[in-house]
């Protein structure tokens, strides 16, 4: 994983931090389908069809109050953003407080002898971009 040096103003002072960066363009559905098909007996076209159907099917379940768990990947669920719009009593809580509906993703973790390990994010080696 690559990072760049980034400057941010914190409490009136500028500080430097590493910031994750990505290279070129994201992996597209075609590339992902071809890579997945090399790992199993499914054709790239079949993988592509499943990937294309996933957003609509996941949205259906999420909109109906369910979370979606993909074995080996993790869980998705809706989260409401109401930042700065708290009220003083339960009777005042309303939909007008919601600023945004977001999708939260939690990578799957598995129990190992030495504790829990996440499938995504474990063993990531950080390398400064350009070096």
TrEMBL record:
Answer whether the UniProt record assigns the keyword DNA-binding to this protein: yes
In its UniProt record, a GO molecular function of this protein is:
DNA binding
Q: Which NCBIfam families match?
A: HU_rel
According to UniProt, the name of this protein is: DNA-binding protein
Q: Which InterPro entries does the UniProt entry name for this protein?
A: HU-HIG, HU_DNA-bd_put, IHF-like_DNA-bd_dom_sf
Q: Which Pfam families does the record match to this protein? A: HU-HIG (PF18291)
Q: Which organism is it from?
A: Bacteroides muris (ex Afrizal et al. 2022)
Which residues does the UniProt record annotate as the domain HU?
21-110
Keyword DNA-binding part of the UniProt annotation: yes
Highest taxon listed in the record's lineage: Bacteria
Question: Which of UniProt's keywords are assigned here?
Answer: DNA-binding
């Amino acid at each position: 994983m690559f990072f760049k040096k980034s400057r941010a103003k914190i409490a009136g002072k500028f500080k430097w931090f590493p910031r994750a960066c990505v290279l070129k363009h994201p992996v597209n559905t075609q590339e992902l389908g071809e890579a997945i098909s090399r790992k199993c007996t499914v054709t790239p076209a079949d993988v592509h069809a499943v990937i294309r159907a996933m957003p609509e099917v996941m949205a259906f379940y999420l909109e109906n109050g369910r979370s979606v768990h993909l074995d080996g990947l993790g869980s998705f669920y809706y989260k409401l953003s109401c930042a700065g719009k708290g009220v003083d009593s339960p009777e005042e809580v309303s939909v007008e407080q919601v600023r945004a509906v977001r999708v939260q993703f939690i990578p799957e973790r598995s129990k190992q002898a030495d504790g829990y390990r996440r499938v995504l994010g474990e063993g990531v080696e950080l390398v400064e971009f350009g070096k």
